[in-house]
Amino acid sequence: MNTVSIVQQNPLATVKRTASNAATINYSLSPRQQKDMSARGVSGRFIVQYDVERGQDVGEVQVVDGYFVHYFSPEGLKPLNKNIMFILDTSGSMYGTKLTQMKDAMTTILSQLRPGDYFNVLGFSNFLRYWKNETMVLATKDNIHKASEFVKNLVAVGGTNINKAILKGVDLLNSLSKNDRPSMIVFLTDGTPTAGITKSSDITKNLQEANSDQYKIFTLGFGAEVDFTLLQKMALQNNGLARRIYADSDAALQLKGFYSTIADPLLSELKIDYLPLREAVDQEDLVTTQEIDTFYSGSELILAGRLKNNAISVFETSLQGQGSTGVLQYRSNTFLADGTAKYFKEPTGLDGRIKFTEKLWAYLTIKGILEKSLKTENATIKAELKKRALAMSLKV
Questions:
Q1: Where is 144: in which H helix or E strand?
Q2: Interatomic CA distance for residues 179 and 82, integer angstroms
Q3: Rounded to an integer, what distance in angstroms lies between the CA atom of residue 120 and that of residue 109?
Q4: pLDDT along the chain (396 residues), means of 10
């Protein structure tokens, strides 16, 4: 973050600019102020929102004491067209408020599809409810209107056949001829598998075998009764992510908010390399993969790692991805102050916190290890990964 723009909405929070690129936030309430908020004291979440400076370049690289962090968040790129499959739970447990909230969210989401997108919608319980049962369709105004009407007429009844629904979603994406558009499935359910194949390991195995083209799977767990562990595995094993949707008054907003994070893919087949320092970067200690499937508008990629060779003077970053106008390439050099990898841009006021790169590297590494543990069905590998994560957490 190179500049700070302060917008203070909570009068009890104080924000102080400590440098041109840094700020501190203090939120300290007296007992009286806490009692005035509610009978239970402080209620709700304290949210700090910020954005980073964006540009059409490799982003920002910081190197401190043998560790580096790379932030990538471009702007000004035209979104790619996408193929997106919506699979919606319409089992009996969705009856009432949850179904209404889902319909509300889907009406908005469908209206936000881009003219070049291909899409389809599938409802499921113990059987499937098709809108278009043979292929994906172009997001024309007429098709969006018809799909919205289909969603509005969905009713909640029956069990939950997750296996059959997700495999049909993959099959519908396969119906499209090969193209360069990012392809994804958004899968929403509020329960556990109760119909058809119900064993979680069989469902994840079937999905991996069917999804040979590695479409990204995004899973949404609606409410408290959902098998979220299954949804996490379905997502993580297929290059996606899982998110809980809490069944309260703003559930529709949560659904819309999630979609906004994947609505506009900017780059696909993103590859990042550090040249000519491949031997200086410890490949096993890179947190995120150097081949990123898709980068979305409004997101930020954070790649952290540890250097093998601490005596370097130039850290060169190379980035390449497929954009809407073709292949985009960026390259940049970070010159280290004294050739010993102890460089930090504008360290004013950071004092002892200057070694944050090591802690961020450790945090992201542990997070990655735990995700690998969740993905695997092998008990031995799972135990070893958890052991490694624990050892690292105690070390830093």
A1: helix 141-152
A2: 10
A3: 12
A4: 50 78 80 76 65 68 79 85 92 87 88 92 92 89 94 91 93 82 89 89 91 87 85 88 79 83 86 67 57 78 77 77 85 63 44 66 81 78 81 72
Cis status, amide bond into 276, omega within 30 of 0 = yes
- The angle that helices 200-210 and 228-236 make with each other, rounded to 10 degrees, is 20
E runs forming strands in the chain = 13-19, 22-27, 60-64, 67-72, 83-89, 118-124, 128-130, 137-138, 183-189, 216-222, 242-245, 265-274, 291-296, 301-306, 314-323, 326-335
Structure tokens at 204: 């994840």
* Residues making up the chain, counted from first to last: 396
**The model's pTM:** 0.76
SS3 293: strand
Report d(CA 82, CA 77) in Å as an integer.
15
Distance CA 366, CA 194 (A): 34
Smallest CA-to-CA distance from 110 within 121, 101, 99, 100 is with: 121
Which three-class secondary structure state does DSSP give residue 310?
coil
Residues sharing a CB contact under 8 Å with residue 98, sequence separation 6 or more, in sequence order: 190, 222, 223, 247, 251
Structure tokens at 350: 């950071």
> What is the C-alpha to C-alpha distance for residues 15 and 150, in angstroms, rounded to an integer?
48
Quick check: helix, strand or coil at residue 226?
coil
Name the token pair of 308: 């093998």
Orientation of helix 251-260 relative to helix 97-111, angle to 10°: 30
Residue 99 CB neighbour total at 10 angstroms? 20
What is the C-alpha to C-alpha distance for residues 57 and 217, in angstroms, rounded to an integer? Answer: 29
Closest to 360 measured CA to CA, from 280, 304, 318: 304
Closest alpha carbon to 137 in 147, 127, 128, 123: 147
